[in-house]
Amino acid sequence: MGREENHSDAGDGDGDRMANKLIGEIGLHKRISNIFAARNIITAKDALSMTEFELMELLDIGMKETKSAVKLISEASSPPCLSALSLLQRKAENEHLSGHLPTHLKGLDSALCGGIPFGVLTELVGPPGIGKSQFCMKLALSASFPTAYGGLDGRVIYIDVESKFSSRRVIEIGLKSFPEVFHLKGMAQEMAGRIIVLRPTSLAEFTGNIQELKDSILQNQVKLLVIDSMTALLSGENKPVAQRQHQLGWHISFLKSLAEFSRIPIVVTNQVRSQNRDETSHYSFQAKLKDGFQEQTSTYDSHLVAALGINWAHAVTIRLRIIKVAKSPMSPPLAFPFHITSGGISLLSDDGTELKGPGINTIHAQGHSDVINFHGEV
Amino acid sequence: METSRLPLSSSIRGKLISAGYTSLSSISSLSSTDLARDVNISEAEAFDILKLANQMSGNGSTCLINGAKNAWEMLHEEESLPRITTSCSDLDNILGGGISCRDVTEIGGVPGIGKTQIGIQLSVNVQIPREFGGLGGKAIYIDTEGSFMVERALQIAEACVEDMEEYTGYMHKHFKASQVQMKPKDILENIFYFRVCSYTEQVALVNHLDKFISENNDVKVVIVDSITFHFRQDFDDLAQRTRVLSEMALKFMKLAKKFSLAVVLLNQVTTKYTQGSFQLALALGDSWSHSCTNRVILYWNGDERYAYIDKSPSLPSASASYTVTSRGLRNSSSSSKRVKMM
Fold first, then answer.
1. Which of A103, A147, B77, B232 is found 20 to 30 A from A354 (Cα to Cα)?
2. Where primarily located (chain A) (predicted)?
């Protein structure tokens, strides 16, 4: 159990509220609960991390007693049941908690039902220089705006791992995209003052940062968390790829539950890297299905895949893939390919610099990588 | 059979063996008082041991072995088993009519392939009333990833009710059929949703399900979305993880048999090194692969979504395409010739 300790320390968030239920307080027979205590099985997590048989051996009591103890512990630490209907009603009541942060890209906003949703993890994937950081800065800005201008009127925590955040650029974006707000006196200072930038230099420091955040998010009116980028955090660590990806496991769970319980949007960026041997998109049985099997159509460049691996990909709720289409037979000035993920929705891309406004003309369905084209116009 | 196979605590087992009671037959003829005196334990403990010993040796059963059934009886039982439709007839075909009750079915695939969609679809479809060829049951949805979208469930429920109404309209022209009583809200009401935030909660909930289902009749499907998530993040000791998971799988199997319900476990994929190359495989390793009765893998074939029966004791390997529409799971438009038997 020793090895798990560092994890449970870190994970003692709301997400683990049930797991840390004390066995002594569950109402087991005094004699049995003493036996648990004597064997140093203190929390529900300790007891349920073993099979019933192992527990029986360890406690040296009968199978029947073990089973009934496990039953009681389980009942006490089961999550509560909700009907989907009450879930729907609760969501309707808390509409303000389940809102969206508009990206100010009309096509993207409508595809995302209003913008980046609260309470989930949204990922931006794209090659270097494509505009991920630009996108993040603009999001940060719009979250800091007063509600009257479509913002969230709150603070933004911007974890800038790659040192790409530029205040000058933020003001510039503000002046260009939201002149009506920014030309008010003192506004630029106030808005920029709401964006808090953190620059962790190691994964450990980052871990510390986000744990600290957990407590301060609600008190400090934090309405958006941006992490640019997740990949850079790992590339600093001197470990083999598989191990690095495993390390992120805890961060995935933590960020997901952070988003869920504080009801804020969390946006992370992810780099792309060239596909290496351990990245594959086929099952072994697919080789057997000879006829009718086409090569997987590549979404853009078949050699580029999102870094961080499949385990991470399972965890993000929405993945937005940013692609720049410099030249296209459909020939609108900008093309926004998007991608459908576990959350059911998807993404577009802007071409890095200022996003010219909206106007969808076509949607081309290409399986799981659809392309929405935009006409440029401010 | 030997005494050491009884599920007893080690101290009591030690006492039994040192007193010379090494085989079950040597115990079963004793009275509890004799046993208590000989082994130096309390009479209540001795009584429990005798009860266990009797159960294990199968006394008092008319059948050859306690709890056994012959193949003919099993055939009858299997034929009468209802199946839950997936709303995609191609997929139903290769599944032998739908997801079978009394079995554990694992469904896996890459992110975004539609695992959660299938989960939601099944939790709606299980409620189709018997008059419409459904089960009229209820659903338990165990959400470990936070990916259950209640708005989506409502959408699928609405489409399901519309389909039933259309069907009734058609039937009315020919002969009298029952009205659709069901409203989309009722469907949502009958989906019991659990949000699981750690593997401890997951284990606890699975242990607790037995009681929950006894108290709420008519639960006909249990969906776990996904079985993998917390076990992939939090467990360091892989051997321990495997043991806890196999115990959980056994409990799911017991639930499926005891309440005649379908258990659907959604699983993530990972990469695996076999025969000199890396390939996709469902997560949780080889020993986990043994714990589900049926296994369905979802994959992209070009731009189309396909499902493939990877493992099943009764169904041939086959694949079929499907699509995810705003109304839920459906046949893919160009489907007719897509079903491939292998």
1. A147
2. nucleus
The HSE-up count of residue A224 (CA atoms within 13 Å, CB side) is 35
Number of domains in chain B: 2
Mutation for B interface: A22, A74, A364, most B CBs within 10 A: A74
Q: Write down which residue in B32, B57, B82 finishes a domain.
A: B57
Q: Write the ipTM.
A: 0.70
Q: Kindly determine whether residue B243 and residue A54, on different chains, have CB atoms separated by under 8 Å.
A: yes
Q: What is the mean pLDDT of residues A16-28?
A: 77
**CATH architecture of the domain formed by A97-374:** 3-Layer(aba) Sandwich (3.40)
Same domain, B135 and B168: yes
Which CATH number fits the domain that encloses residue B201?
Answer: 3.40.50.300
Domain for residue B18, yes or no? yes
- CATH number of the domain bearing residue B45: 1.10.150.20
Is B62 a domain residue? no
pLDDT tens digits, B221-279:
999 988 888 887 767 788 888 888 889 999 999 999 899 899 999 988 877 777 766 67
Q: Are residues B152 and B100 in the same domain?
A: yes
Pairing of strands A369-374, A360-364: antiparallel
The answer as to whether B89 is a domain residue is yes
CATH code assigned to A2-77: 1.10.150
> Is A126 within 8 Å of chain B by CB?
no
- For residue B68, tell me if it sits in a domain: no
A42 touches chain B (CB under 8 A): no
Residue B252: give the domain boundaries: 73-341
Query: A82 vs B310: CB contact, 8 Å cut-off?
Result: no
Query: How many CB contacts within 8 angstroms connect chain A with chain B?
Result: 251
- B107 and B50 in a common domain: no
Strands A318-321 and A121-125: parallel
For chain A, give every domain's residue range: 2-77, 97-374
Q: In whole angstroms, what separates CA A289 from the centre of its chain?
A: 35
Q: How far is B247 from chain A (nearest CA, A)?
A: 7
**Which 295-324 residues of chain A touch chain B by CB within 8 A?**
295-297, 310-311, 313-317, 319
Selecting from A50, A81, A341 the residue whose C-beta is nearest the C-beta of B111 gives A341
Among A36-45, A359-368, B37-46, name the one with the lowest average pLDDT. Answer: A359-368
On whether both B226 and B311 belong to a single domain, the answer is yes
Selected residues 81-100 of chain A with any CB under 8 Å from a CB in chain B: 81-85, 87-88, 91
Q: Does A280 touch chain B (CB under 8 A)?
A: yes
Whether B272 and B192 share a structural domain:
yes
Regarding whether B253 and B221 lie in a shared domain, the answer is: yes
Q: Are residues B172 and B315 in the same domain?
A: yes
Whether residue B300 sits in one domain with residue B238: yes
| Cross-chain Cβ contact A311/B232 below 8 Å | yes
Residue A285 with chain B: CB contacts under 8 Å:
297, 308, 310, 317
The model's pLDDT over A46-80, given as tens digits with 9 standing for 90+, comes to: 888 888 888 988 888 888 889 999 999 999 888 88
The number of residues making up chain B comes to 342
